Amino acid sequence: MTKKLLIIDTDSGIDDAQALMMALAAPDVEVLAVTCVFGNTAAANVCQNVLRVLSVCERQEIPVFRGSACPLVGIGNLFSDHFGGDGLGDVMEYKDPLWEEKIQREHAVNAMVRLVSEHEMQVSLVALGPLTNLALAVRLDPCFPNKLRDLYIMGGNMEGKGNVTLCAEFNFAMDPESAYIVLEEFICPTYIASWEYSCRNALTWEFFEELIHQDAPAARFMKMITSKCWAYSKEALKSKRDVFFGPGFVSYDSYAMAACVDSSMVLESIECPVRVELQGSIARGMMVLDRTNQLKKNHSVKIMTKCDLTKLSRLLMESLRQPCKK
């Protein structure tokens, strides 16, 4: 069977690492490239984090490209400390002094445009961070979206419940203009794993403990990077996410990746046009669902609402049993 070709665009926090491992473990997936974007941490840290994950999984042959270091407009907000200052829980004692030599010289956006053109209608693009690289890609090549097989996004929100601002989800809030461009101009089949979708399909903390205590290098790596991170603290989340959705383990980016790896993972979704709000001090970056077609847009997206948790659990478990040979 022909393998599904993936480009993974990431800001490489802990959940990005989990999602990347999920793709690497999938037997019918070939990761063509990993492109890096600012978000959970600075772009230089993102590159190093991706190299660490590929090293743990013994998949260093996959090329890594450095991309946008700031949003499309303005200087952007300070990086989130959700996963620590370095994006991987601030537990890394060793830093590879030669990491820059392992990053491809080609800019991530140019690589993205080139690879999709070389494999027209075959590449699934999985976007796990701010959408800056994608917005720049469509500016470089207006036909870029038409050449994609499909697009999977972790980001946005359906109900105005925000996790970094009152109304906006982190990835969209970090670069609202790019999110706007992508959801207006990418007319390829587009699937969105929103913040609410991830939180409403949480797994148990007991499952998380089982997940990270597997006897494999990837599981030990995940146990280490989550060990001191407040985002994996049940107590810290009681005044954060749990206020809206109740307690549970949520690996946000893994929901978008799981849908790409196995489309049967998504049991229910909403299909409608969407738009990202760019104005206002409260609603900027919020994704608005147009379920009554008031915007008269010519294309819709699919917003996931219900997940097969049994299948998700299995993919997560398999993702941490690495390195594995395909």
UniProtKB/TrEMBL annotation:
Residues 6-312 form the Inosine/uridine-preferring nucleoside hydrolase domain. It comes from the Eukaryota. One of its GO terms (molecular function) is hydrolase activity, hydrolyzing N-glycosyl compounds. Keywords: Hydrolase. SUPFAM superfamilies: Nucleoside hydrolase. Pfam families: IU_nuc_hydro (PF01156). Gene3D superfamilies: Ribonucleoside hydrolase-like (3.90.245.10). InterPro entries: Inosine/uridine_hydrolase_dom, IUN_hydrolase, Ribo_hydro-like. Belongs to the IUNH family. This is Inosine-uridine preferring nucleoside hydrolase-like. It comes from Nothobranchius furzeri.
